[in-house]
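User: Modeling request: complex.
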Amino acid sequence: MSQNAEILVRMTGIEKYFPGVHALNQAQFELRAGEVHALVGENGAGKSTLMKVLTGIYQRDGGEIQVMGKPVEIRDAKEAQDLGISIVHQELNLLKDLTVAENIYIGRESMQGILLDKKAQNKRTQAFLDHLNLNLKATQNVGKLTVAKQQMVEIAKALSHDNTRILILDEPTAPLSDVEIEELFRFVRDLRSRGVGIIYISHRMGELKQISDRITVMRDGLYVDTVDTAQTPMDDIIRMMVGRVIYEQPKTQSRVPPDAPVVLEVKNLRSWEVKDVSFTLRKGEILGLAGLVGAGRTEVCRLIAGADKRDAGEIVVEGVPLNIQTPADAVEAGIGYLSEDRKRFGLCLGLSVANNIVLTKLDEFTYGLAVNDKEVKATAAEYKEKVDIRTPSVDTMVRTLSGGNQQKVVLSKWLVRDCDVLIFDEPTRGIDVGAKSEIYKLMHSLIEEGKSIIMISSDMPELLRMSDRIIVMCEGVKTGELSIEEATQEKIMALAAPQV
Amino acid sequence: MSEQSIQAQGARKLDLQKLLAPAVLVVMYIFFAIFGKNFFSSYTLKTILESAYYTGLMSFGITFVIITGGIDLSIGTNMMCSAIIGGVAFSMWGLPLWLALCLVPLTGLMFGFLNGLLVAKAKLPPFIATLGMMLVTQGFGAIVSRVQTQRYPTIGTPNEWFKTLFYRSGDFPTGALYLLAAFVVAAFVLNKTRFGRYVYAIGSNEEATRLSGVKVDKFKVMAYAVCGLFCGFGAILYAGTYTTAIPGTGNGLETYAIAAVIIGGTSMAGGSGTMVGTLIGIFIMAVLRAGLSSLGLQAHWQTFFTGVVVIGAVLMDNIRVRAAQKVRV
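Assistant: Request completed. Predicted assembly structure:
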């Protein structure tokens, strides 16, 4: 990419105020044709707000936006689209029962008079998909595709507007496994070579090196700097983001003595997606579960937590075989499951921080008929301190908290319950660097208290940094077990990839 | 940048919202007091109270169900069916009145419990399960009573204590005491008990609540059962007020009870709502009814305006939710 490539977008001096907050303070951003420009910053840094200004969802309170050299006003999403700006949101917005073609051209169907012309539409879509070098069939049902493929359908949909030259990808890799990410990146690079300008928002530092040409860092609504990716060490970027240094070193040695007691043993666990999985968890251990998305890791953990019914297999807690049929049984046995999808499975967003925290153990706050609210709030306040949940008060609705703080509320729920075995499913997904390291610290302090942890993660450096032992799964089968001393990214990948 | 200050602002806004429904109630009352004929009198006030008895109890009951994210369409017919069963037990089976009255809430409880089983255990959508139960209760009442209108004792008959106990004693509206008592109990159960807390949690996120180790099914059954029980007690007050229970009627009453809950700010999506809100909703409906008739507008006008108020209340709620979301950064 050359320095004098065409400038697609130039935002300068952007100001945005919300009641009580200066959300964007002299923010700026520039996108050239044929580049992948990453936009990074902690949650609340103003990335999303800036992008919402660009896509017409918010109106700026000051500053100037130029698109292809011309100053513009963008009043709504339609006007953004007319200027060639498309966004692919973090949450996929596809209709799973419709075909690829129907999804891409929804609202713009090929018609013959008042009737749909499916044939023409499928043909047109197939030509377009081929043009993008996407290995997809226009007539396939979207629900049958992998998440990565669905994401590509979403991107294809964004590009199908003829004039799209500016593509915003918001956390596109969050739901993807490493292999799928590679597939996505190939596609993104291909688009770049066609002159599309891509704004790439991500929390995953490792990816930025691979995919981006330039990086713009924001912090607290302020523009920090724009740097060339190739010439800037990641540590510098992280420092710019958080204003402090965080070290990411892999663990070299397990801290668990080999004769530590086994707290949890699963034998021949079986269900629709899980095929004969057995393993043990020792006291004070962090057991990493590696694998691609869809490898059955979450499914195994949901069986242990009683969230789904198992077809066969035994769950032994501290030497006692237990018949776990419901989550209530698992919680009773001291097993807590922190879901990967905290909004769907972890939190009651409309309830207060305090009520969420005590949900796992409300009976112990109940005297006679009544719940003792004073005690509930005191306990919640205690965990607010201990886990450092940043919330104005324990009565605040969880919905209003940031992702990292929501995750801390989920964590507190299980700390209150005092579970001996905690299952963390993608504990740091979608939360910023600062909050991540706090979650790590908390996990370590749990271990020191004698708890044991199973951690599912698709973030390899995270697995290597946190785990004492790693189990790898692929297509519902446990394909290997690695001690932390022998584990490397390459070894894990070799076990995680399907053998075709 | 202070996260605190926006949230504080948000909290203040919510407080104002909380005052909206009571404010509407007061404004309506004053409006009718000025423009209505003979509206501003203790007699009208009593009429307002008395028209709120049985819908009030149904509304308290269904508030639990609606906060879990469910709905119970059978409350009107369940209430009527319970009243009919009591009447049958008294007049056809010859039970003493007090014993017949005991059967009334039990009938309500039973149908509510059945609703709960259908929804929580058999996993039927609440709308379908309770729509079926609406027809079942309506039919059941007619079958058991052999389509005979059931009469409860009135003043001047041997059991006139019934009417004085549950409707009016001299000038004193005794029924209002039960409305108040039911409110206190309902508010306590919703706000202070573990069951109440779970009702909110289930409505907010059922799966997250289940994964937290809460026996969600059990508490959902309880919510529908409690709703049925309130309908049963409502049936006693209905009998006290009207003294006749006619087989084949009762459907349509649920709409008024549900409307009161919605006007009181409870979200049909579940997870939020208050008993105080429901109480205010009940009185807004009652004042509206009495007020419109004091303006000389008859029943069909009342129906019309009730609908307008319901739609208005939900529209306001939507605007509020959207405004709340806009504040988020």
